Amino acid sequence: MARLGSKEKPAVIRVKTSERAEEIAEICNEHGWQFIVGIEPDKTEDISDVEKLLALQSAFVRKQKTGRNEPCPCGSGMKYKKCCLNKKLDAPSMQDAVDWITDNTILVEEFAKIIKKYEAEPLDEITASLFLDAFIFDHRLVSGKTPFEVFLKNANIHPSQKDVFESYKNNIYSLFEVLEIDLGKGLELFDIISKKNYYIKERRGTYAAERGSIIIGRIAKTDGSFVAISPAFNSFPKDAAFLLKKIFESKPTLRLSAFDIFGTLLKKMDPPKSHDELIDELQELTEKCGIDIDITSINKRINSSESPDEAFPEIYHANIVEDKKRELIDLLYEIWNKYPRKEFNGKSPQDIDKKGPKEKMLIQALMMEIIRKINPDNYKSIESALEAANRIKDKWINMPQKDLEGKTPLDAILEERKTLKNPDKDFNLNITLSQI
Questions:
Q1: Which residue of 62, 251, 359, 394 has the fewest CB atoms within a 10 Å radius of its CB?
Q2: Are 211 and 191 in contact (CB under 8 A)?
Q3: What is the per-residue pLDDT for 381?
Q4: Nearby residues of 147 by Cβ (< 8 Å), 6 or more positions away
């Protein structure tokens, strides 16, 4: 079966101008892709074949052979010939599966559809590897099989490797905290979602691992031991571990698929939008919900009000479904924090915010804790719900946290402020609640 971008199956491209044709041709030539380009000014541009190829270029990175005198890829610091060269066995490699899948035109096209569905283009390195893992093991094709199962059935796999590859089907995909590092041998991991501990045999990863960091990836048991089978293990530093735990600790203990985890993380990785983009989004959403708001009055509303509900009462009192109202209110708060104010000399509250990254992360974790525990609709009044929220805040900010090395969140915040030369020692967080 011919591969997209090859001489047998060139990428077919339709553009409106010669300038655009030259631009696309340059991209194809740079990557060595064969292509046919047509210029049709009256038709819609179609560069879907190039988009598929670019998506695959980001996601499927083939391993290069290591030279004898080059540093060993395991991370030991020794030369390859004196380290792992003679230890190589005919062990199955997930790269074999990756290479086979990328040579399958049908699977390549299916992968491109998944990327488009999640609106994840362009792919950065982390997003690409997350997508790749999810696609290979968790995506169901029309046949009901995963791409990995298609590989198992159709690839020319040596009989000595078949059983090991089969064992990879019973895998665990999760967020793992690194508990202990057995240098050059393995890692002791804690599954944040299932709350179970695993020891995995791993050589290369031990040299880059850090205790307390979070790894997102897939493991499987083969020959009595757990091993890492993800095309790439994505590691997040200790500072990010605290928030990642908070994001997923309220998830059910039932096993989640890579797409469940990936979908949650993708929302967190969205690039920030300007206040103008957010206002356009607000206008579009209010129109869909049948709420009449004069968008040109936003400047006056925000600069003459003390809170979003005072500035936009028609949204808070709108008779619409709960999910849509929550989406609108979240959008309002984002606009509120990014919109320029006269009282701040044209700057927004976000512009004058002196909080460091750790303080922002801890505030986000605190708000998640409050949202998880407080439903304003369960209280007699907003005031009583607000009192309960403030009690949670006061208790949480002063409670030692294992993930902060025994420090309280307040201690961690003040420690960061000191390094940023911020003399403020007060933690004043104003909480606003509203009934949906």
A1: 62
A2: no
A3: 85
A4: 101, 107, 110, 111, 135, 136, 137, 139, 141
DSSP assignment of 390-428, as one string? HHHHHHHHTS--GGGTT--HHHHHHHHHHHTT-------
Helix axes 382-397, 357-373, angle to 10 degrees: 130
pLDDT of residue 70: 77
Number of other residues whose CB lies within 10 A of the CB of residue 163: 12
Beta carbons within 10 angstroms of residue 385's beta carbon: 21
Contact 235, 215 (CB under 8 A): yes
pLDDT of residue 19: 87
What are the residues facing 181 on neighbouring strands? 187
Q: How far is the C-alpha of 121 from the C-alpha of 12, rounded, in Å? A: 20
Q: Give the H/E segment covering residue 11.
A: strand 11-15
Strand 197-201 to strand 225-228: parallel, antiparallel, or no bridges (unpaired)? Answer: parallel
- Is residue 337 a contact partner of residue 432, using CB atoms and an 8 Å limit? no
Beta strand 225-228 pairing with 234-236: unpaired
For residue 283, the surrounding DSSP H or E stretch is helix 275-288
DSSP type of residue 376: G
Give this prediction's pTM. Answer: 0.55
Q: Which of helix, strand or coil describes residue 214?
A: strand
What averages of pLDDT result for each successive group of 10 residues across the chain (436 residues)?
Answer: 78 90 87 89 85 63 59 67 57 77 84 72 64 87 92 87 89 89 89 90 77 86 88 68 66 59 55 80 90 88 88 88 83 87 85 76 80 80 86 90 84 86 78 62
Give me 380's structure tokens.
Answer: 């007699």
Q: Are 204 and 222 in contact (CB under 8 A)?
A: no
- Cα–Cα distances (Å) from 22 to 14, 41, 55, 135, 394, in that order, read 12, 15, 20, 33, 61
- What pLDDT shows up at residue 220? 92
